[in-house]
Design brief:
heterodimer, A: about 130 residues, mainly alpha, B: about 120 residues, 3 helical TM bundles of succinate and fumarate reductases, elongated
Amino acid sequence: MRAQAPSPVGPAAPRRPGGLRARPHPTYLAFLVHRVSGLLLALFLPLHFWALSRAIEGEAALEGFLRWADTPLVKAGEWLLVVLLAAHLAGGLRVLALEFLGWRRRQKDMVAVTAGFALACGLLFLLNLL
Amino acid sequence: MRAMTSVRGQVHLWVAQRVTAMLLAVAVTVHLVTIILAVRGGLTAADILGRLRGHEGWLAFYAVFALAAGLHGAIGLRNIAAEMLGWRGRGFDLAWLGIGLLTAAFGIRAAWGLYAA
């Protein structure tokens, strides 16, 4: 049997019977979401503190910033940040439960609950915003 | 000896990441509830300051929150930079610790601004 040449773009995802490419495991997607949300939140943190520190210059300065932020684009950004924060919180709790409580069973269900929690927080934010 | 110090440093960072994660689990839950309730009817400086101005309890909460978030974020960035960019070693670890503490100080300053405004 002839050895197959390695793919130039790395190992191919395993194939299921019928030729369908296997989907990534939900826990891998959860890892990616946790990492990307953490990265974006960590980069946003100094900006958030800068915005809040407008209060040092007085109520008018803080109000001026809030009115500047009163645009659909900024509100969409705020919605995204709420979803990222909720996703990072729920994903982090799943990891802590796994590490400290040994909750290893039903990880796919746990991932689904964390995704549901993040989207529910986003929806509640939107409902209160509109 | 150097390798042992490095392993000890890694353990300290891992513990700090988990302890701050536990603090943040509580703080972020409170923060999310506050955000969702506060945006109802529009966000104004008067509303924010009405809640925070002169309240020691909120000041203490946000000071602990800022410290935990600053350190947790910096350790997370350090882990990503080590894995993806190969930025490893004591020098990088100390730099990330400095960034975390600086971010936390910036947050505590903002919390003080909201308390004293």
